[in-house]
Amino acid sequence: MQKFEQLEYGKYYHIYNRGINSCDIFNDAENFSFFLKLYDNYLSCIADTFAWVLMQNHFHFLIKIKEENEFINNVIISPDRVQNPVRAVGNPSLQFSKLFNSYVQAFNKRNNRHGSLFERPFKRKMIDNENYLKQVLLYIHNNPVHHGFCEHPMDYPWSSYLSCISLKQTKLQRDIVIGWFDDLGNFKQNHNSKIDIINIEKILEL
To answer: By three-state DSSP, how is residue 61 classified?
Structure first.
């Protein structure tokens, strides 16, 4: 059985997972939106987000776990609108477990199913250099293109690409992301270029 290390403070990670036996984990726009809402509620207190994509049966996130002294006492709004104070100090993986458990409970109830939905444990790979960060980000944004959902990342609504090129307020670490590519023009150019997804998967050991 593969073992996964605990998430460390101050480290960058590629977080990803899929449905059990590659089953669908998102059925419609409401599922996508609800998952993102839960992600914000449970994860914004313990991690900064640089890129994400939600696909029909899997997802990817590029994040940095905050330093321990950056963790805050966060008030999470549960689906029934009850406010539950949550202290986000300790094991960051616990916040991911809360996210997934909350989503699965709601998904199962809505779809009259029971049992697990996601593969366990969720996958995580530490990232230790800027080139690797850029490769992961390009891989994430081009996932919908690779799987035939669109011809360009800007045509897919459930990823962080549109937030990166927008001027609208966002919790995404947009300025830092654009800085990795020097400027917005180069960011777009890198996404306009044909991406060798298969080769990137080998580099990322996916």
So the answer is: strand
